[in-house]
């Protein structure tokens, strides 16, 4: 009886969490139940916010990867650093050279790394 009441509230309430075949208020042992898959549509504004957050996360991940590489190598040629960073981040998704260049510039501004002529050095 408790199961029937629970199924009835899930299938016949205001918000139908379960779909019942055949439709109706009475529950029989032969009735078939399925999960009601409600599609929540994202607005374009939410989509933009999500995309912006993903871009920020990628930028931080790229910067963290560069710092980890520089901790190991201490000194590194610019092109070698870019290539190594792309190879490490390739597993996580597509990273462009422009994103890596931007991350290097941010780290130079924050003084996490510095340029000594041609090679880049970790501080």
From TrEMBL:
Residues 54-121 form the Cullin neddylation domain. It comes from the Eukaryota. Pfam families: Cullin_Nedd8 (PF10557). SUPFAM superfamilies: Winged helix' DNA-binding domain. PANTHER family: CULLIN. This is Cullin neddylation domain-containing protein.
